[in-house]
Specification:
Length: about 425
């Protein structure tokens, strides 16, 4: 067990000694932060008298170490202005991405949006542009190297060492409240961070139970996570907790590709003029989001009818999803879509439009995207259609015949050279 004299050695060597403290604070502020944390724990347990005798001037490195650890503190340098964001209404070529982000912005309780796709498909651009549609909404980015305390918050060591009081230091979840929390390459984050992210995104509350602190605060934000499937995937348990999922593709249509490139070049050459030309469309989108949020906040507005429940259940059963989270998310997404469109009731068309974003990452492997009950009946495949026709033309619900059976094909008989016995027949006759 660590004794009081060992804590005294650490304090004398790295905290009370100004030269050593400045060196560690400059080259490894995280290490100094950890040292002060250990001393504070000892002080709270009554083990270290050295920690109690630390002068106030020697407690300042805690604040500097925590600032280097990613928390918000007053800085002497003036922050540079952020560049103008590309207008959300001007994003072309990715209609499913736009719709999924608007649904998540209308109802953040959906659980966020997971965007899968290659590089350069407007993932970050769309997330930044979405934040501008929400009044006063912050845009917070979670870096890959962030720690759990950086995300959820932890003990304020500066306050604790200065006044011997426990105080909560908020993390990125608190900073993102009311805005957009963007996580690039979310599949490369540790599972513990993803769990905390998804818990807060679904519940709207961040609960912290660590470092002797029990604290809860509101954390209602739009979670947008991106990943490149070529660099790895998420576990199915984590995938299921994302509300919506969109798979982006590279633009292969020449006219569509040229239109997107021209729009980007026009924005880069004159950002303010480009934004002014799309100001009316941006204002209309922001107004529709405000109306949708107000409608969704009314529990009596847009009730779920029996036909909607039946359509959702049929789609989820056909996709062979696990659990009931897909049903709940699909119902909420359909209601959010109806609110965005100003519809008087939720219809089956709303369910069908949001179904793919809800089921894409939950559907069992090998299950067709279109449910068999709604797929048009196709004629029997012909022999010229090959293997793809065999896969598409089978009816798994009929129960007649042998599923996957192939018609017999004539096979020619090749003549085989007769075998010569190892022992001549005459020798066998003599032995007999």
């Amino acid at each position: 067990m660590v004794g009081d004299h060992q804590y005294a050695m650490v304090a004398d060597a790295y905290v009370l000694d100004a030269e050593n403290r400045d060196f560690v604070d400059t080259h490894n502020p995280r290490a100094l932060h950890d040292m002060l944390s250990r001393l504070l724990e000892a002080m709270q347990r009554g083990l270290s008298a050295v920690a109690r005798r630390l002068p106030r001037t020697h407690r300042e490195p805690a604040a500097r170490a925590r600032a280097a650890d990613g928390r918000t503190y007053a800085m002497n340098t003036q922050a540079a202005p952020l560049p103008a964001s590309f207008p959300f209404s001007a994003i072309a070529g990715q209609p499913r991405l736009r719709e999924a982000l608007l649904l998540a912005a209308a109802d953040p309780a959906l659980g966020g949006v997971l965007i899968e796709g290659p590089r350069g498909t407007a993932k970050t651009t769309a997330a930044r542009a979405l934040a501008e549609l929400l009044p006063g909404a912050p845009f917070v980015t979670l870096p890959l190297g962030a720690s759990l305390e950086h995300l959820v918050g932890t003990l304020d060591l500066g306050q604790a060492l200065a006044g011997h009081a426990l105080k909560f230091a908020p993390g990125l979840l608190a900073r993102a409240h009311g805005g957009v929390l963007y996580v690039d390459e979310i599949n490369l984050l540790p599972d513990a961070l993803i769990d905390s992210l998804l818990d807060a995104a679904a519940s709207g509350v961040n609960a912290v139970e660590r470092d002797g602190i029990s604290h809860r605060h509101a954390a209602r934000f739009v979670l947008v996570g991106t990943m490149n499937p070529e660099e790895g995937s998420l576990r199915p348990q984590l995938l299921d907790r994302f509300g919506l999922c969109v798979q982006l593709r590279n633009l292969e249509d020449r006219a569509e590709r040229q239109a997107v490139v021209r729009a980007r070049l026009a924005f880069d050459s004159d950002p303010e003029g480009f934004r002014a030309r799309h100001a009316a469309a941006e204002a209309e989108l922001a107004a529709s989001l405000r109306r949708a949020r107000a409608t969704l906040a009314d529990a009596t507005a847009l009730p779920y009818g029996d036909a909607v429940h039946e359509a959702v259940g049929a789609l989820c059963i056909a996709a062979q999803v696990d659990g009931l989270r897909a049903d709940l998310v699909m119902l909420r997404a359909a209601r959010a879509l109806a609110a965005l469109e100003g519809a008087e009731a939720i219809g089956e068309q709303h369910v069908r439009r949001v179904a793919e974003a809800v089921l894409l990452h939950r559907r069992k492997p090998g299950v067709e995207a279109t449910p068999p009950a709604q797929a048009p009946s196709a004629p029997p495949p012909s022999a010229a259609e090959g293997e793809s026709a065999i896969d598409d033309g089978a009816d798994t619900d009929s129960g007649d015949g042998d599923w996957g059976a192939l018609p017999p094909e004539p096979v020619g008989v090749a003549r085989v050279k007769p075998l010569r016995p190892l022992i001549p027949a005459a020798s066998l006759a003599k032995k007999a």
